[in-house]
């Protein structure tokens, strides 16, 4: 079921408000500098600022708000995961990976600068992401900060995003079964989205049961997001996507669309969104925006 016009407007306003606050936080945390490293910082800012859905950061802020954990700490954690995501996109676009010249409607970082600078910018964004969440300004309790670091490391490493990228590269030019595609994207895309929801639970001191429900919500919304992304890759224009359209088909990758068809993939995305919503039931109306977000990710056009 699609959200009503009023619900959609409320969600869009909330998305825009959080994106603006996260953008401002990123701008402060990756401030321009003078000296020999100025070009590196410029590339980091180019890769991170001025675009993107801020979905992962949004999830941090909204899930933390369920437990009253608002303010600068939640925004720092949100900015951190957006840095990590930006690093992954910079490296993903490199010629040795997906070799894409367009990202968020502008030249990819390695095209705007050069491959070496882009690689270093990605490296620096990854380390800065952990520096930010490890700092007392994110949370005064070191146990909370350690939990954030551990969860982000798990979500982004060999058992998460990076492992999924390896599976994705090895899958080019050969047919993968649906369970293989599901696992690929659960790691490459889903783990970092799931972390966004879990980070809010960590910041807010959620109970084990509440943490598990938010993790399940993040897992299912991440899967829905990726299925919808595959549909967009097959149906949307380059202008709508802000990146090269049809790249997966051109690379011979198995996708949800190639396995299920466009209509089947759309149905799968809606089922996953409904499953994500079901995990939020104990939170009542406090989770209204998160419910609307689950439906939004399958109806978006970019």
TrEMBL record:
Its Gene Ontology biological processes?
A: terpenoid biosynthetic process
What would be one Pfam family of this protein? polyprenyl_synt
Q: Which CDD domains match?
A: Trans_IPPS_HT
Instruction: Name its co-factor(s).
Output: Mg(2+)
Its Gene Ontology cellular component terms are: cytoplasm
Which superkingdom?
Answer: Bacteria
- Gene Ontology molecular function terms on file: metal ion binding; prenyltransferase activity
Keywords of the record, alphabetical order, are: Isoprene biosynthesis, Magnesium, Metal-binding, Transferase
Q: Hey, which family's this protein in?
A: Belongs to the FPP/GGPP synthase family.
Q: NCBIfam families, per this entry?
A: FPPsyn
Name the record gives this protein: Polyprenyl synthetase family protein
From the broadest rank down, the organism's phylogenetic lineage runs: Bacteria, Pseudomonadati, Pseudomonadota, Alphaproteobacteria, Acetobacterales
